[in-house]
Design a protein that fits this description.
This protein has one domain: Helix Hairpins (Orthogonal Bundle), CATH 1.10.287. The radius of gyration is 14 Å and the shape is elongated. It has 66 residues and is mostly helical. α2 runs antiparallel to α3.
Amino acid sequence: MIAKDIRGMSDSEIADKIRELKRELLMLRIQRVNGRLEKPHLLKEHKKDVARMMTILTERKASTNG
């Protein structure tokens, strides 16, 4: 997911997507431990997506407070 798409989402949509990605990350980690992880690149992608979303939320909060 690119930042442009994330910026078009509302804060609540971003928060929902973060929860969803974190849940998927948990499932991917469990699969990795069990040796059944078929797409290891998704771990890195999801982590970066969560970081992008958190950054955009932080930017929005800073712009409304200052």
